[in-house]
Specification:
single chain, 336 residues, alpha/beta, Arc Repressor Mutant, subunit A, Rossmann fold, seven-stranded mixed β-sheet, two-stranded antiparallel ribbon
Amino acid sequence: MKSDLKVAREVVELVTGGWRAQAIYAATKFGLPDHIEAGLTTDAELAEATGADEQGVRRLMRLLVAMGVFEEGTHTGYRNTPVSKALLDRPGTMRDMCLLYGEEFYAAWGHATECFRTLTAGFELAYGEPLYPYLDSHPGLADRFQRTMKAGNLFFDYVPEVFDFTGGKTVVDCGGGNGHLLSVILEAAPDARGRLIDREQVIPIAREYLAGTVGLDRVELFGGDMFKAVPEGGDVYIFCRVLAGWSDDDAVAAFEHCRRGMTSPSSRLLVLDRMVVDGDSTVLPALWDLHLLMTTGGGHRSIDRFRSLLDRAGLDVERIAELPMETTALIAAPRS
């Protein structure tokens, strides 16, 4: 009986996915897109610039050209494609994401079977402590992590389209990271003011970013634990991709702090996150859910589960809106 060649090829494509990812990581680690952009377009030139073996470069580039990451001309050498240009070392790049996923997070996935068996984060198994404490003691990695998060924020520009932040509202971004989302909101609503709370170690990064975008005169920064307290007096409280690594009780506690801090019945709480479904799931939400298990031991929630947590905190989901990159916005109102 002959093998089903189509199925066999599909299996090979799937199980070699990690090899492809590591090839792109190696090219990014060597800075090949930047060297090519600077005019170094041959194997010999790239080997000399990176300290790699020329045959190693040739064999790596053979695969990456076949994958469409680079192009190769008969007489012109290598050229960047839109994919490799997204990995250049410049603002807005996805370079840091590629490095983080190819190093620390790749190591976390190396413990996948134990993760599924015990629900212990792969990162903790690989590095001996949970992700966020590890970031606190490794500032270089923490900076890369923040830049990676920014590179994945492609839906931020669309958030002001699903909620009206104008009218002099005070917007509180809980776990706001470097302030990217808050800056987008304040730029879209010039009469709004912002408050951001995150861990003490993150506040200098947010201060620098917000100073260079909307200005510090429109924002207040709070270093602290959003699960213990949040800034009071907000008209809008936002949780953007920050709850997946925390327990249901932690999420409810944070929602309850926001409920008590709301200024009026017109105040709202927004949850911006990927939502999982058990039937007819698409690949990305299911994949990111497993990635959270590998990195923090957490996972994504369904809309119904979020609805239940908000209900426990005295909030009702009044509207659901879809955002790009399979992200969902839940808009919740305080229960009267």
